[in-house]
Amino acid sequence: MSTFIQISFSGLATGAIFALAAVGFALLWQTAGAINFAHGEFIALPAVIMLILGEMQPTLGLPDWVPVVGGTAIGGPLPEMGIIVAFVLTIPLAVLVLGWLFKVSLVDRLLTPGGDDIPLVIASLGLALMIREYLRVEFGAAPKQFESVFGNDRWRPGGIPVSADDVGVLVVCVLVILALQLFLRRTSTGRQMEAAAQSPTTARVLGIPVGRMVLYTFAINAVLVTVAALLVAPTTHARWDAGISLSLVAFTAAIIGGFNQVRGALIGGFLVGLLQNWSGYYLSSAYREAIPLLLMILVILWRPQGLFGIAEERRI
Amino acid sequence: MSATTSTGERLAHRRDAVAEIDRGSLSWPLAAAAVAAVATVVLLPVGRSEFAGIMWLWAAALVAVLGLNLLLPVESWNGIVVKWASLAGCVAFLAVFPVGRTNSTLVDLGLFVVFAIVCVGLNLTHGFAGKISLAQGAFLGIGAYVSVLLDTGREVAVAGFEGTLPDLPFLLAIAVAGLTCMVLSVLIGFPALRVQGPWLAFVTLAFNLLVYLVLNNEVGLTGGSRGLRTLRVDLVVFGVDLFETRNYYYFCLVFLLAATALVWWIVRSPWGRAFKALRDNPGRAASLGVDVRTYTLLAFSIGAGLAGVAGALYARLIEYIDPRGFYIGQSFDFFLATVVGGLGTMVGPFIGVSFITVLTDRLRFTGDYYRVWFGLFVVFMMLAAPRGVAGSFNQLRSWLRARREAAR
């Protein structure tokens, strides 16, 4: 029993990260109709950026005669920025590049209303290849250690081993998702975003700036992928090819749960995390990724709106 | 338009509309041609190796042929002569490639031919029948493993089954590999082809990963991540020693020509017309009595079967296979190659495949930006010339023709 709880708990923690990734993916799909095959790379890239920023030693560029305070020469290099500072710096960068630039340069040009969505699929596959290979060339093929912000402590409450990282990840994910839900449900901007997602035409008639609402979605997605990067990198390490499997997990979670609902993607994420851990332990560790994939295929074939999604009528 | 409008006004209106379309679409074909030219010159790293040089020459020759076809109207005798002459020229090019090359270059050329078979098949599935598939890498792998397991009399132990596999002749093993892929593709295609576009992409992607997991984990059958040695010294077909790499290249080339002829024939036959009707307007095709499911299933399974045959050829070419060669990334490569070359054109796959063959592992160097450029190129191509290199030339040609007719 305690093994089961332990496995389920770490599955929930992994699932929470998957949920973050899946919610971002589902938001873009729902609001902008954009299917982003580079979603995993959007998580792998900030992880690497944070690692590089975190190891930087900024200097203030002050001359040598500035006095020494508290044993540190103010003019000399400051201590390493650390992951938290790097994370804070990466967020605006991600919003700018993975949010705004991605929307303006690719999505807006490739998605025509009522048009085919395959061109964007192809372009995002190209983008994914580009990011992946750039990371490999610039950053090296070897995976880099990425320290967890929650430290490496392990506790045993009631005899069940729990790692600080899992607890931290779960808490942060739940907070982020709660904040997102509150924003979407309770604020005026959030309600407008929902309206723009559900029926752009009606929203426009009602005077909602649909374009700006879609842009907000991209910004939110950029924040979500950066948070996911911070949380997932300690387990996957900062790897150039981490993106492929992260993309797959995000698709799987979003599709299983139902992509037209943030709630669906959320549950999908947790479900994939739990299924992977359970099947990895009780069935076969070699096939831990297989069960969610099989479930995804079944869902697409028999319940394409997802287990928790709402069926949409087909419009011609 | 109201009923009171005179015929003359209506015609004038229509002429204006056509002119509008022409003006609007002018920038695209030009941009496309520019992109094609730039791609050929920049993307293939000439001088990196003997093989890269040959690939550059090959892609440049194809683009030149496309350009030549632009100048001559297809219907004229000159056009027809040029068309057949360029076809003969391309075949001659492929036949002369291997003369006086080193063994390593010959293997790379063989890879080019094998990958071309996959892309020709994918072009039928996606380019003509409009069904996206991100599982060609998996079919390549299934074909490779099936053929290798069946023609060497291997001892295997998998899932409670232990025994010796048969020792089939090579040609039969290739056929079985192709058929296995066709059967499997029908099994997954029968339910999966109900879903469209991105959904089908996700299903095929998941299938590819599942195949990869099986190849990686059923160690008793596939050797797991250590892979299988596929080297066979006694590979003789019809008295030809295929252990000799040059002979093997020509052997693969025969399959490529046969595959191309098959797809060409299918596209020109009533089948092919049904495919095109399906791709362009599935609802209308169905209402006209085209059996949607059977036809798409056929296109899907022929694409998979060709990938399987290619896999069987691939295994004996590189002498060693492991699951990583059949991961999702390989499927992405095939897919992007077909798109870049031009979906739904006969020439397209042959242009696209020269890009991805250069970026296979054998020619991959650390610190090489080539794949980054390729990714960037795909993105730009979707923005500027979504029909790919050959498709853009077709677009340009129909624009020129429309202009010639307007001038007459």
Task: List the helices and strands of chain A in order.
Answer: HHEEHHEEHHHHHHH
What is the arithmetic mean of pLDDT of chain A? Answer: 82
The percent range for helix content of chain A is: 55-70%
Helix/strand order of chain B, N-terminal first? HHHHHEEHHHEEEHHHHEHHHH
Using the alpha-carbon principal axes, give the shape of chain B: globular
What does this structure look like?
The complex is a heterodimer of chains A (316) and B (408). Helices cover 69% and strands 3% of the residues of chain A. Chain A has helices spanning 2-32, 39-55, 82-110, 118-139, 164-186, 188-198, 200-205, 210-236, 242-257, 262-283, 290-302, and strands at 68-69, 72-73, 154-155, 162-163. In chain A, 47% of the residues are buried. Chain A is globular and about 60 Å long. In chain A, the strands form two sheets. In chain A, strands 1-2 form a two-stranded antiparallel ribbon. Chain A has a single domain, classed as Orthogonal Bundle (ABC transporter involved in vitamin B12 uptake, BtuC), CATH 1.10.3470. With 408 residues, chain B is mainly alpha-helical. Chain B folds into three domains: 1-43 and 370-408; 50-96; 106-364, ABC transporter involved in vitamin B12 uptake, BtuC. In chain B, 73% of the residues lie in helices and 4% in strands. Chain B has helices at residues 7-43, 50-71, 77-96, 103-128, 136-150, 170-192, 197-217, 219-222, 245-268, 270-280, 282-287, 292-318, 328-341, 348-358, 370-384, 388-407; strands at residues 155-158, 161-164, 228-229, 236-237, 240-241, 320-321. A two-stranded antiparallel ribbon of chain B has the order 1-2. Chain B has a two-stranded antiparallel ribbon with strand order 3-6. In chain B, strands 4-5 form a two-stranded antiparallel sheet. Mean pLDDT of chain B is 79; it is low at 1-5 and 16-26. The interface between A and B is large, with 43 and 42 residues.
